[in-house]
Amino acid sequence: MSRVFNFSAGPAVLPEEVLRTAQAEMLEYGKSGMSVMEMSHRSKDFEEILFTAEKNLRTLMNIPENYKVLFLQGGGCTQFAMIPMNLMRHKSADYIVTGQWSKKAAQEAKIFGQVNIIASSEDRNYSYVPDMESVKVTPESDYVYICQNETVHGTTIRTLPDTNGKPLVADVSSMFLSEPVDVKNYGVIWGGVQKNVGPAGVTIVIIRDDLITDDVLPFTPTMMKYKTHADNNSLYNTPPCYNIYVCGLVFKWLLKLGGTEAIHKLNKEKASLLYDYLDGSRIFHGTVDKKDRSLMNVPFVTGSKELDAEFVAEAEKAGLRNIKGHRSVGGMRASLYNAMPIEGVKALVDFMADFERRH
Ligand SMILES: *Cc1c(COP(=O)(O)O)cnc(C)c1O
Questions:
Q1: Rounded to the nearest 5°, which phi and psi values hold at 67?
Q2: pLDDT tens digits for 142-177?
Q3: pLDDT at residue 32, as a whole number
Q4: How far does the centroid of ligand 1 lie from the alpha carbon of residue 32, in Å?
């Protein structure tokens, strides 16, 4: 076996310890005589897995009592519709567009009502975050939407906008559990797990009680109502049992490591290694304004398409995988999620320095 350093933006690297536990429990979970994949979602064993996963997530994020935790399916893109269907009661919502994912969310919301783009960084290909302090919320809007970490463009919103009392809805898919957050600042904080938390197939939605109602848009299907899942503790229908189980293992791993504060410290250390190198490099350059750089997704370029391609090909051979940038930004992108060991970032920086010497 030879595991590589996987810099993929998602599905992404998982902690080796978690994979080993899953391997050890593959044929028989506990004393159940079967794999988690084969269990009824109504069984005692699975109920315990779900309950423990939620309990540990609540501990990790310090989630207040008046917030529900939902384990849903349909990926991040389903939330782009579920959010307006459930929250756009007056058919108007404010969107802050800082990259590909908030742009997609805004486009989807237009199916359901008026979308006000109250700030955007499209003018410079989403390479920065607009000044959040000058953002003005529309009086009649139902909520304010952000994607707090833009996975493709590599920006993070560090100062939340003042929503004037309206619920703030945040997509944190690619920074989930990467640093401490104050859940109270959000009406809905949600993420697809395949970036930083687990295997593709689960979307975790943390939503304030008062936003869960039957007062949704007409024609909203049962499965698309938050209330359906909240009333049934995410067991209205068969949930993605095995994927929830792996998320639960990741939560345990993170708790053992010291929680979000400990991982944040490590994440800052990893990101600094790469950014400091980029800032001193002759041939590689970061694409994002320094103040808005993501700790999780680091896009960079050489300025030459040929050189970028050469670098990506050589990196692949050296066991530094999935380093090619998204087509809309070009160049390279290194995703440094929680499970990426610091050794991986050191190996990348060493490789870049060596490449630089040779070019
Ligand atoms: C990957 C991603 C999504 C989309 O997730 P899918 O599960 O592929 O639908 C949405 N938002 C962000 C920030 C992402 O990184």
A1: -115, 140
A2: 999 999 999 999 999 999 999 999 999 999 999 999
A3: 96
A4: 34
* pLDDT 10s digits, 52-76: 999 999 999 999 999 999 999 999 9
Cα(78)–Cα(119) distance, integer angstroms? 23
Distance (Å) from CA 152 to ligand 1 centroid: 10
User: Residue 257 class from Cβ within 10 Å (0-12 exposed, 13-18 middle, 19+ buried)?
Assistant: middle
Q: Which atom of ligand 1 is nearest to the CA of 194?
A: 7
Q: Is the pLDDT of residue 40 over 80?
A: yes
Residue of 171, 296, 322, 328 best suited for mutating to test ligand 1, as the one with most atoms within 8 Å of CB: 171
* pLDDT range class, residue 14, cuts 50, 70, 90: very high
Residue 101 designated active-site: yes
**One-letter identity of residue 156:** T
Could you tell me the two tokens for 312? 């990506």
- Other Cβ atoms within 10 Å of 211 Cβ, number: 20
CB 128 within 8 Å of CB 288: yes
pLDDT at 199: 97
Burial level of 280, CB count in 10 A (0-12/13-18/19+)? exposed
Which residues are near ligand 1 (CB < 6 Å)? Answer: 10, 75-77, 101, 147, 151, 171, 173-174, 192, 195
Distance 100 CA to ligand 1 centre (A): 10
Tell me which residue has its CA closest to atom 13 in ligand 1: 173
Ligand 1 geometric centre to CA of 79 (Å) = 9
162 assigned to active site: no
pLDDT tens digits along 297-318: 999 999 999 999 999 999 999 9
